[in-house]
Amino acid sequence: MSPTHRFRPASFLGALMGGALVLLIAALPAPARAVVGQEPASPAEAEGILVRFKAGTADRVRRQVLAAAGCAESRRFRLVDGLVLARVNAGASRATAMARLRASASVVYAEPNFVVRAAAVPNDPRFPELYGLDNTGQTGGTPDADIDAPEAWDTQAGSDVVVAVIDTGLDYNHEDIAGNVWTNPGEIPGNGIDDDNNGYVDDVMSAW
């Protein structure tokens, strides 16, 4: 790593300490302190209704069900069997249309096609220092020479994901980490017994 690309970790990375161990950390779930949550969707912003028909439902039956609900098919999704985007006819009520669609024996589900906006960039004031995640040329390096973390977070920000960290340790009481460290549910803290019979006594934080 060249001097012009010197790594400057954000505060929570600076909390990593000595002592070899493997610690399992649950990924920060939204809404967490370090993640800006996604804006709530408004029903008024929904673009049509997503309707999934049961497997094998004939096109004729689909058209009949949609027409009876005051809708018409506007798009068909090939990746999800039976899923279509339905347009609510002028003068018809979306709420009434969804109620009728959900009552149909041919429909698996019907829900508004909400417009949502991803916004999962950390609000850590030192995040801009992490050029490896999002390089804007802030340290004199090449813009976009990074792992495209913000773009990845637009797709997935993590939920109940357990990640194994192999490092020299971390301060699990740090504000950016506390509350997100995985704990061993099979171990009773401080009783001096290997409760889960894995060969380690009181490995609540999995310091192996």
Large-scale geometry: flat
**Total number of domains:** 2
By DSSP (H or I, 4+ residues per run), the number of helices equals 3
Q: Indicate the CATH topology of the largest domain.
A: Rossmann fold
Question: What is the assigned CATH homologous superfamily of the largest domain?
Answer: Peptidase S8/S53 domain
Secondary-structure-based class equals alpha+beta
| Averaged pLDDT | 76
**Spatial strand sequence of the major β-sheet:** 3-4-2-5
Series of secondary-structure elements, N-terminal to C-terminal: EEHEEHEHE
Report the top-level CATH class of the largest domain.
Answer: Alpha Beta
Query: What share of residues are in beta strands?
Result: 15-25%
What can be said about the biggest beta sheet? 4 strands, antiparallel
Question: What is Rg?
Answer: 25 Å
Helix content estimate = 10-25%
pLDDT below 50 for ≥5 consecutive residues: which ranges? 1-38
Give an overview in words.
The chain has 2 domains: 1-38 and 121-208, Peptidase S8/S53 domain (Rossmann fold), CATH 3.40.50.200; 43-112, Alpha-Beta Plaits (2-Layer Sandwich). The chain is built from 3 helices and 6 strands; from the N terminus they run ββαββαβαβ. Strands 3-4-2-5 form a 4-stranded antiparallel sheet, covered by helices on one side. Strands 1-6 form a two-stranded antiparallel ribbon. The protein is of the alpha+beta class. The longest helix has 10 residues, at 59-68. It has helices at residues 59-68, 94-103, 149-155; strands at 21-26, 49-53, 71-76, 83-88, 107-112, 162-167. A hairpin with a 6-residue loop joins β3 and β4 (83-88).
